[in-house]
Write a structure and sequence with these properties.
- The protein is of the alpha/beta class and about 270 residues long.
- Among the domains are: about 10-85, Conserved hypothetical protein from pyrococcus furiosus pfu- 392566-001, ParB domain (Alpha-Beta Complex); about 160-215, no CATH class; about 220-270, no CATH class.
- The chain has helices at about 30-45, 65-75, 90-100, 105-120, 125-130, 135-145, 150-160, 165-170, 175-190, 190-205, 220-235, 255-270, and strands at about 10-15, 20, 50-55, 60-65, 80-85, 240, 250.
- A hairpin with a 6-residue loop joins β6 (about 240) and β7 (about 250).
- The chain starts with 8 loop residues before the first strand and ends with a helix.
Length: about 270
């Protein structure tokens, strides 16, 4: 429930007086979700007011666009609104953070949201990360998705490619190859690991090495892949495990001193 602040105004506003937030990162709202929410509103009303700010003679939604749309679907003419004085910057941050906390955004919407914050706040990736309470590497990984070809970004938005698949494809570099391998991955329903093997093969072929050379080596144990993925998730940075019977290595990739110190602290506190 949104906590009231000094200067807030609570009112019953005409549905038509509200307008959408231009900083809203979520671009898709599924009809089934809206219908379900509308049915709940018909039965119990809107339990949490829509958060908005005054822009001219309109109320611009900061948080609660789905409630507003569902209220229209339910046939309401007025909705409860909590009006707050909020700057453009704060409105952009609030809209993104609210959706991140509710996990409402797909990977591309998050990427676009972070890009919008970079521009709106005129700050760095580190500055955006602090605003939304995430690691800089997480923000960086999402922003890198914007380097994908448009058609591949669409697959990520629809969920036909996961973020793991998308990050793997970025290693290919040129858009034509990325699109081709992405299509192969979707048609063959490859796992991220299978796609990694295909990407490695493509990179070796581009360097003049015989295609499939990597696939002739002994298959890597599944438990090693699982350990590696667990470390990547825990540390928020690329990790490689080189396992041998007599000697093994865990290689942690850190981008600069700041990230090195962050990873060091995580390991120290583990």
């Amino acid at each position: 429930m949104e906590q009231r602040q000094a200067g807030d105004e609570v009112l019953q506003a005409e549905v038509a007086s509200l307008v959408v937030n231009p900083y809203q990162p979520r671009k898709e709202i599924h009809e089934a979700e809206l219908a379900e929410l509308a049915e709940s509103i018909r039965a119990s009303g809107i339990l949490q007011p829509i958060l908005a700010r005054r822009v001219g003679d309109k109320l611009e939604i900061i948080a609660g666009e789905r409630r507003w749309r569902a209220a229209q679907l339910a046939g309401l003419t007025k909705v409860p609104v909590l009006v707050r004085s909020v700057s453009d910057q704060d409105s952009a941050v609030f809209a993104l953070v609210e959706n991140l906390q509710r996990e409402d955004l797909n990977a591309m919407e998050k990427a676009q949201g972070f890009k919008l914050l970079l521009t709106t706040l005129n700050t760095t990736q580190e500055g955006v990360a602090k605003k939304v309470g995430l690691d800089r590497t997480t923000v960086t990984n999402f922003l890198r998705l914007l380097d994908l070809p448009t058609e591949v970004q669409a697959h990520v938005s629809r969920g036909t490619l996961s973020m793991g698949h998308a990050r793997c494809l970025l290693a290919l570099g040129d858009n034509e190859t990325i699109t081709q391998v992405a299509d192969e991955s979707i048609k063959q329903a490859w796992s991220v690991r299978a796609l990694e093997a295909r990407v490695k093969e493509a990179l070796e072929a581009s360097k003049g090495q015989p295609a499939g050379t990597a696939g002739k080596s002994k298959a890597r144990p599944v438990w090693l892949n699982e350990l590696e993925e667990s470390l990547v998730e825990a540390l928020g940075t690329p990790v490689q495990i080189r396992y041998g019977r007599k000697r093994s290595q865990i290689i942690i990739d850190c981008g600069g001193r700041e990230e090195f110190e962050r990873v060091f602290q995580r390991l120290k506190n583990a």
